[in-house]
Each structure stands twice: as C-alpha cells, then as structure tokens.
Amino acid sequence: MNSFPLSSLIASLGGELVGSGEVMVSGLAPLESATAQDVSFLSNPRYQQQLALSQAACVIVSPAMAGAATQRGVCIVTPNPYLYFARLTQLWRQWTARSTAHEPLVHPTAVVHPDARVASTARIGPLCVIEAGASVGAHTVLKSRVSVGEDCHVGERCIVHSGVVIGADGFGFALDGARWEKIEQLGAVVIGNDVEIGANTCIDRGALQDTVIEDGVKLDNLIQIGHNVRIGAHTAMAGCVGVAGSATIGAGCTVGGGAIILGHLTLAPGVHISAATVVSKSIHKPGHYTGMFPIDENANWERNAASLKQLHSLRDRIKTLEKENKS
Predict the structure, then answer these.
(1) Whole-model pTM above 0.85?
(2) Which of 227, 272, 284, 288 is catalytic?
C-alpha cells in the first residue's frame, strides 16, 4: 500500500495545512468511514457532527469550518473543499495507478478502419470499433466495447466508458400508409474536448446536420441523446436522462437523473432540471425547474389525479362566477 506525506499533497495542490506535514496517508475516504490513514473532506456544514467524530488523519475544510477542524486534528483549509478533493482524487490516481507503459495504445482486439484517424496518444480499449472516416483526438481514452460510427468525431482528452455507442442512426421514419419508410441519417456526431461519457450511453447521428456535444460536457450512464441534439459547453446530465431529437440545451445546464427533454425544445444556458422532470416546453430563463408529481400512497395519488383532471372545468366555472360578480 502506497503512503504519502501530507506535505506532498500541499506541494501539488496548495491549500493551508494546519498541523504536521509529516503525517502519512494511504487512502481517501468519507468522514464516517475514514481511518487514521485516510484523507477526507467536509463541504456541507450540516455534516459538522461527523467531522467531530471522524477518525481521518486529515480533513479538507473551508475557512468557516477551520476552527472545528483544528480542534479535531490535522486539516487542510481551502475555499472549495469539494473541488480540492476532486483534484486530490486525480492526483491520487496518478500516484497509485498501475503502470500502462508496456500496454499497446490500441488494444489488439479493437477494430479500427483504415480510413479512421486516431491520434497517436489516444488509448483504444478492448473490442472497440472505430468506423470509416471517424476520428479520435489526442489523449482521449475509449474503454472497452465503445463504438464510434462512420465520420463521427471525438475530441481531445475525452473519456468514453464501456459500451458507449456514438453515431448509431437517429430514430427517423416517415409513415407510408400502414408501414414505416426509413429516413436515412446523413449527419454525424461531433464531440468536443474534455467530454466524459458514461457507460452504455447512446448518442445518435444527425439526420441532415450533426449532433453536437460541446466542450466539457459530462454525461452519466445510460443516457439517450437523440439525433440533431446540441448540448452546450460544460452541461452535465445524470443517469437515464433522455433527450429527444433536435433539442438544444445551453451551456452550464444540469439535468437530474431520469429527466426527459422533448424534441425541438430549447433550454437557455444555466437551466437546472430536477430528477424525473418531463420538460415539455422551451425554457428561456435560467433557473431551477421541477415538474414531478410527489409520491404518495396509491389511494391518495388516485384521488389527487382525479382532481387534477377536473382543474380545467373548475377554472372555467371560476371565470364564469367572476364575470357574474362583476356584472
């Protein structure tokens, strides 16, 4: 097990160390389960009680929590403990990762078309498929079983997790009497730099224009992105989100797990959608939006649902009564 002095963390990441830099640490852990060899963090004041009880060797805290943390023991003080911890996890991965120096950058089981372009520093995992005309940028990592369809582009420093499909046909069909006629999907998928895509997520190619995922976007597992969708820079989506075709989502948005965004809608930059919300109209003003029906006992839910069905007629009756009162 590798151990590192706290002074080496400070040398790499900064922050104010309160206590001895010679304390050795060998792991990262949550406050409640941390041992005397672990580094932990506190970003939410509601968990201050856990701070007092934690056995962690060192806790990363904000200036507001520095007093309580100092009473407990060694701490690192920084304006944004969660961000500091995120960077610490990256540093820890560098320090403890198994060496890949002797592994091939393109796994021997990967299938790369001769007309595809893969940067010399990209890493292509087992059983990946990169089709004709596709390109993968520098320092991008494709985990196992990733498919990049023809003419699609993945930018630099991206991480694409197992099972992702980039560039499958979008869902486009025209009704011809009782049968469906396929609309050929002639666009591609263009993914920017520093994008991370979770396992088994699917991003469909555009029908005529490209589906576009801008720089810094973070997509969780099992997300469906329909054809011709555009997602703005640094937007993040949690698991099982579905975005229907031709929706445009601005920069810096967040979408909670299981939410649905209907097709051809626009979300302004800075829109935040709660989990399980169905977005059925465009949102042009930044803010936090929620559209889920609260869970309840089934009998109560059925009564409330029945009442909701009557709201339209009740509204009309109220308008009629208001007119009568005015006259």
Answers:
(1) yes
(2) 227
Structural domains in the chain (count): 3
182, β-bridge pairs? 173
- Is 250 contained in some domain? yes
Mean pLDDT, the chain, as a whole number? 95
- For 208-227, write each residue's pLDDT tens digit: 999 999 999 999 999 999 99
Instruction: Assess whether 234 carries a catalytic annotation.
Output: no
The pLDDT of residue 1 is 65
**Other Cβ atoms closer than 10 A to 274:** 16
**105 occurs within a structural domain:** no
Residues 147 and 70 occupy one common structural domain: no
Q: Is 159 strand, coil or helix?
A: strand
pLDDT of residue 82: 96
Amino acid at 178: A
CA atoms within 13 A on the CB side of 93: 7
Q: Which amino acid is at 5?
A: P
Backbone angles phi, psi at 257, to 5 degrees: -55, 140
Which tokens is 41 given?
A: 């963090």
**Domain span at 313:** 298-327
42 assigned to some structural domain? yes
What's the DSSP call for residue 204? E
**CA-to-CA dists, residue 33 to 18, 28, 46, angstroms:** 22, 10, 17
User: Which structure tokens are listed for 200?
Assistant: 């088994």
Indicate whether 106 belongs to any domain: no
Last residue of a domain, one of 61, 96, 131: 96
In this prediction, residue 51 carries a pLDDT of: 94
What pairs with residue 111 in β-bridges? 129
